[in-house]
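Posting this for the archive.
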Amino acid sequence: MKHSDKLAIRDAATGPHARNATPKPANAKPQKVRPTPQPGRLVELNGFGDDPGKLRMLAHLPQAAAGRPLVILLHGCAQDAAVFAGDTGWTDLADRLGFPLILPDQPEISMSGRCFDWYRESDTVRDAGEAGSIASMTRAAVSHFKSDPERVFILGLSAGGAMTAALLAAYPDLFTAGASVAGVPVGAARSGMQAIMQMRTGGRDQSPEEWAGRVRAAAPEGFAGPWPRLSVWQGQADTTVAPGNGDLLATQWCALHGLDGPGVVEQVGNGIEHRTWPDRRQPLVEHWSLENVPHAYPVGERADVRGRFVQQASVDATANIARFFELD
């Protein structure tokens, strides 16, 4: 299905689909594309295709040229998508490098905590629920903005980080690489109780191959690779998502890529360890362990942080994730 002729642009703050507005009926006729608004303005894009998860598609649109990368940013629970994008520096980076930044938004009317349902099978399997909505947004954005389909990236924090890993598993043919900050392994939970236990304890031990099998089970039938690359970030002072989840997520994706061994370890300083598992050209998996960081997205010395779960640290996740994605 072609999506590029169905996108309609609205003001994200004042349009009829603002946060507490009544959702548009699923069979409503999408509007035609309107002219792209002034660069740097946050807008809502409607008519992006199937929306089984009933999510909003927000976008920060710089003056982007055709053939640029596309980045999808998933907020965490109790976070505002636009504030999160600004606090973490992703809007500034999109302006500087000229790529569209897509912000899937969980409306309060759908989920009081504004969490993505990363553990529900109905929201993570291919072309269903929230995963299906985010994939529709991504395909529509690639088509409409003429983005490079070989450079489509996704990242998120907490519930958004766990959903990021789930989307990389379900859509390895759509996303090139991803980054999960305070996330959990794919397939670690299938119910709310299991999700809570996984977050608190890191879950039960399984072999690396068993963890990798959960990713393969979520992928399209017959998919043989290449698998997306993954950057894992985990604060060791996190009391919401047990730090062992970061280790398990890295283990899962190393096994998926056929990597073993401890990787290449770099002690960055201030209790920060950076571990990479490269192939001949680039890291396939990396793991950042941050000793004094709690449940938050680390942003270096950025001064203006307005929202929740974003914290200054001695390393900036956005700059390093952009390097891992090779956005420059």
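The mean pLDDT is 88. Residues 129-144 form the longest helix (16 residues).
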